[in-house]
Amino acid sequence: MAQVAARRDVRDADPATPGIALEGVRKTFGSVVAVDRVDLEIADGELFAMLGPSGSGKTTVLRMIAGFEQPTEGRIRLAGIDSTDLPPHRRDVNTVFQDYALFPHLSVQQNVEYGLTVRGIGRAERIRRAGEALDMVRLAGVGARRPDELSGGQRQRVALARALVVRPRVLLLDEPLGALDLKLREQMQVELKAIQREVGITFVFVTHDQDEALTLCDRLAVFNAGRIEQVGAAADVYERPQTRFVAGFVGTSNVLDGAAAAALVGRPGVFGIRPEKLEVLPAGTAAGGGLRSTEGTVAEVVYAGSTTRLIVDTDAGAALSVVQLNADTGPAALRRGDRAVVAWHPESVRTLESASPTPPPEGSA
Ligand code: ADP
Ligand code: MG
Fold first, then answer.
1. Domain that includes residue 118, residue range
2. Which burial class, exposed, middle or buried, applies to 336 when counting CB atoms under 10 A from its CB (0-12, 13-18, 19+)?
3. What's the pTM?
4. For ligand 1, atom 24, which residue shows the shortest CA distance?
5. In a designed cystine with 291, which of 55, 281, 299, 343 is the match (CB 3.0 to 4.6 A)?
6. Residues 263 and 146 in one domain
């Protein structure tokens, strides 16, 4: 088996073979189940996000792909090759850590060259390739500086250049923008996407920020308590959340259940509807054809520049959050205490599973 793996050139893998495949992966630390029954396939060249709250197992999954942790159960294939038992340096994978882990006493150039130096690559080629990597992250010209002479955003780019310089097949990024302030983070999201497109390798990044995941990725997996609740294209997961958890964690949703669901949707169940899919009108206004509507009292009006968020306490019992775009007409004239009509297209309502779709683990009684 090891011989087969060694002889095969992973870069010539069948394009139908996923770049990364996790099969029934479970990881426990003592009595803590960090990751449970994760099955996941990531294609070559994807920009893939693992999204979930703190403690949901994202970093542990990333560390198992990198080889820093061994799964307790299950297999990990990289380019079709069972790599579960391979040490990190035998995997064609590199990691950018959240704290960047730059060497403080080395120059930027030396930091970027590091992976080439340990691979015994000659000086001329090291200089050329480190220069190319620094160009790619738009840091040409700072090679002589030390990390402490750079801004947070620049340090982040050095970490990226240092990981890319060895031309891994897969780049893993654990909360890569977590240390940056909001404006810089938004700018780096756009740049990271451009860099990924340019190098064309698989990027798997971990984030707890749903806006970041939606902005950056092609596809994402939503983690909850060590399991994946949903995998799909960003727009698909946002538009068609399958569970109560995903509906609430990826964006905000009005979740309807019990009597309010029956009254508003017309059948029993658990349903989600996004605040921007609701329209709020002054009481007495007829909703358009094909729309469902309900009456209620405006409980809150929050003006937020481009949008206004209203909370309407419906007579059916559910409080609905509504987001209106403050387009040409400006904010709605509705005030706290006003009676209002809330209307929506029936197709905007999503049926949710209230619990995780995966079965409980064996032996858990
Ligand atoms: P995330 O990255 O989503 O925040 P982690 O993968 O870091 O989550 O952690 C998942 C769970 O596993 C948490 O409950 C965490 O405390 C636990 N955990 C992670 N690493 C270790 C470890 N080395 N030893 C013990 N528990 C750990
Ligand atoms: Mg983490």
1. 2-241
2. exposed
3. 0.87
4. 29
5. 343
6. no
